[in-house]
Design brief:
CATH superfamily of the largest domain: NAD(P)-binding Rossmann-like Domain
Radius of gyration: 21 Å
Strand order of the largest sheet: 3-2-1-4-5-6-14-15
Order of helices and strands: EHEHEHEHEHEHEHEHEHEEEEHHHEEHH
Distance between the termini: 24 Å
CATH class of the largest domain: Alpha Beta
Low-confidence stretches: none
Structural class: alpha/beta
Number of helices: 14
Number of domains: 2
CATH topology of the largest domain: Rossmann fold
Length: about 375
């Protein structure tokens, strides 16, 4: 198969979807890899390193899309890429279709096969290609939240961990999944008083066992959240419904209950956000203020630490990408239920329920597009 790796062009996105080690693995399996010039520089990888591993460097993004049978990316295509995508071309990347109607319709019209990192799912319901970036984003959420709590950044002017004789900040974490767990660990490690809310009692019991003494667990419901936001300094939203739009747990009217300068970090913004007042921002302009409350809603948070993020992401994605290249997407998805669940849009049809529900589109059963297995 011919693999194409374009340079990411989303605002301040410095990750790259394949490392030289990944190129070498594809070459070992007999595939050709074409990488756009300077695609890896943001992550500290030179064109020469790709060439040494066996890749061919192409000068433009148009060249990469034109030659490739499978495009491996980090972030969803943006408008300038839509026209480059060919019918029956396989795209393996983060899509987050439920947060963008424009992207969904563009990919339906393209006739491409869109296999989304974020909905590849194991039998235990874990999301192996979302986990590494959720780990990075969860840890970064506390880092960024602490920064924006500083007065010059618009925050309350409170040090997250406090000092002797002065109480530390109160941190509220919405969701006890990967993002929430990593956020709580980081905030607790810095000395903050942390509260995690989640709807799952078994998950809260687990977190209660593994977290340090300065982390409390509370069942998630509107009443409890309304009570907690009144004394919270930093709120981190880490709620995820795989492939679907995130629920709005912090409503606009709750902002009036908060103290001015409270900071909210919406890690769920890729899936539409879990704060009603959220809208996506960039690393260039990361925050905005609504009713005195600072909102940080950067849609590609891990892109700010591309060296760490690229290695963490490609460690997880490469084995799946190799399967797709070795077997072709249909056979790979028939034989691997995890990959099968990654199919979102296929040749003009919506095959993932969360995406169909988000935009009221007809849902085609995924087995219909995979076809029957012919036994010789």
């Amino acid at each position: 198969m011919i693999i194409g790796v374009p340079k990411e062009i989303k605002n301040n996105e410095n990750r790259v979807a394949l490392t030289p080690a990944g190129v070498a693995e594809f070459k070992k399996s007999g595939h050709d890899v074409y990488v756009q010039a300077t695609a890896g520089l943001g992550s500290g990888i030179t064109d020469a390193e790709y060439v040494h591993a066996g890749a061919t460097i192409l000068p433009t993004i148009e060249d990469v899309y034109e030659i490739a049978e499978m495009i491996v990316k980090v972030k969803e295509p943006i408008a300038s890429e839509y026209a480059l995508i060919k019918p029956n071309q396989l795209l393996f990347t983060y899509f987050h279709f439920a947060s963008s109607q424009e992207l969904t319709h563009a990919m339906l019209e393209s006739g491409a096969i869109c296999l989304a990192y974020e909905t590849v799912e194991k039998t235990d319901r874990s999301l192996p290609l979302l986990v590494p970036m959720s780990e990075v984003a969860g840890r970064m959420a506390v880092q960024e939240g602490a920064k924006y709590l500083e007065k010059p950044m618009g925050g309350r002017g409170i040090l997250l961990g406090g000092v002797a004789g002065v109480k530390p900040a109160n941190v509220l974490v919405l969701g006890g999944g990967i993002v929430g767990t990593q956020s709580a660990k980081m905030a607790a490690g810095l000395g903050a008083n942390v509260t995690i809310v989640d709807i799952s009692l078994p998950r809260l019991r687990y977190l209660e066992d593994i977290m340090p003494a300065n982390v409390d667990t509370v069942i998630s419901n509107e009443y409890n959240i309304r009570q907690l936001v009144q004394t919270t300094d930093l709120i981190i939203g880490g709620v995820l419904i795989p492939g679907a739009k995130a629920p709005s747990l912090i409503t606009r009217d709750m902002l009036s209950l908060m103290r001015p300068g409270t900071v909210m970090v919406d890690v769920a913004i890729d899936q539409g956000g879990c704060f009603e007042t959220s809208h996506a921002t960039t690393h260039e302009n990361p925050t905005f203020v609504v009713e005195g409350i600072v909102h940080y809603c950067v849609a590609n948070m891990p892109g700010a630490v591309p060296y760490t993020s690229t290695l963490a992401l490609t460690n997880a994605t490469l084995p799946y990408a190799i399967q797709l290249a070795n077997k072709g997407w249909k056979k790979a998805c028939r034989e691997n239920e995890e990959l099968k669940k990654g199919l979102n849009v296929v040749q003009g049809k919506t095959v993932y329920k969360g995406v169909a529900d988000a935009w009221e589109l007809p849902l085609t059963p995924v087995d219909d597009v995979l076809g029957k297995v012919i036994v010789a």
